Amino acid sequence: MSQGDVQQTLSYPIPSEAALEPPEEWGRLRQECPVAKVRLPSGDEATLLTRYDDVKQVLADPRLTRRLTADDAARLTDSESGGVFNSEMSNVIPDRGEEHLRWRRLVGKWFTAKRMAALRPRMAAMAEQLLDEMVERGQPADLKAGLGFPLPVYVICDMLGVPADDRDRFSRWSDMMLTLTRYTGEEASAAQLEFFTYMSELVAAKRAAPGDDLLSELIKESEGEGEGLSDMQLIVTGVGLLVAGHETTANMIGKMVSMLLDDRTRWEELLADPSLVRTAVEEALRFDANAGFGLPRYLPEEVEVGDTVLPRGTTVICNMAAANRDDGAFDDADHMDLRRSPNPHLTFGSGAHSCLGQALARTELQVVLEVLLRRLPTLELAVPTGELRQVDGLVVGGLSEVPVRW
């Protein structure tokens, strides 16, 4: 495949024939065309990066912005709302400079490894309860519906001070906001408005009657003399944390367990040595071939990536999952090694824009794995791996269901 052929024919996202396997094109792109032109669902053109060093460079470059609202930025979707990256709502939170650092400082102190360690027993208790309910309903069961989806929702709702009873609404709203091709522009816009209205009312309620939660604390700081957030920033922060705080982790729980059960020796290795849970979680994050769209970046100035000069106005798609399979960065990259260490994967990004909630996601994934190994050591997939179905049409990757028995 020549570079010209790749650039003429490649539509993005690139489909995979199997839910847990990467598209074959990834390897060819890394070798032959690591900086490739692609056509997005909107019809706009962007530049795709699949090599580890290139993806890391772009993600860590403070000059580049995640805002895709510039006139010459590529639209990911033709949705009227603009989708999660092209939306005007994405402009509310500063994405670079002092303002961005201030926002990360205010919100980030709620997501430290120390705070997550303190939440760990509560997370484990939630996981135990959900597992009890799943086992009581009988087998086979859908691990995603029974455990993977509700646990991260309970946790992020608990942290934000949001009623967990509203979790089904959050799921619907976030799916629509994360749409590429699944929902119409009208549906996405309506969901965004409903979610925004809900969060506006919640912020007002927290202002009137504060609780012991992240939103109340951010409101308290905004009312003082300090560096608080505006009401609009509070609302968008709440929406963003609810979407990011449950959607990606809920999907990752199902994918991680599926990967470990796909090859029984992996599950047996963990049963024999549960101390491997931490490195196993990191390897699952690296090995995930169904991570979704990747992270877009807009170039407000000319940037050289690899041997290619990208002009100002280019929209770049950083495919972290493809980069995580780069043999130039990881020995035997297409092998899942539960003992791999160090493991500098790019799943949570890199640099100033690395995922704020990564300590939360890691802790949830570790807790789920610990509880499953202890409670259901005989766990197995209830269908052949080839029958697992991917979630399609969204920015995030995942499995529609994870049927299991024990």
Automatic annotation (TrEMBL):
What residue spans carry the Polar residues bias annotation? 1-11
Q: Which cofactor does it need?
A: heme
Give the signal peptide as a residue range, or say none if absent.
Answer: none
For molecular function, the Gene Ontology terms on record are:
heme binding; iron ion binding; monooxygenase activity; oxidoreductase activity, acting on paired donors, with incorporation or reduction of molecular oxygen
Q: What Pfam families does the entry give?
A: p450
Q: Write down the superkingdom of origin.
A: Bacteria
Keywords in UniProt for this one? Heme, Iron, Metal-binding, Monooxygenase, Oxidoreductase
What is the protein name stated in its UniProt record? Cytochrome P450
Q: Where is this region: Disordered?
A: 1-24
> Which PANTHER family does the entry mention?
CYTOCHROME P450 BJ-1 (PTHR46696:SF5), P450, PUTATIVE (EUROFUNG)-RELATED (PTHR46696)
Q: Which organism is it from?
A: Nonomuraea maritima
**Member of which family?**
Belongs to the cytochrome P450 family.
* Gene3D superfamilies in UniProt: Cytochrome P450 (1.10.630.10)
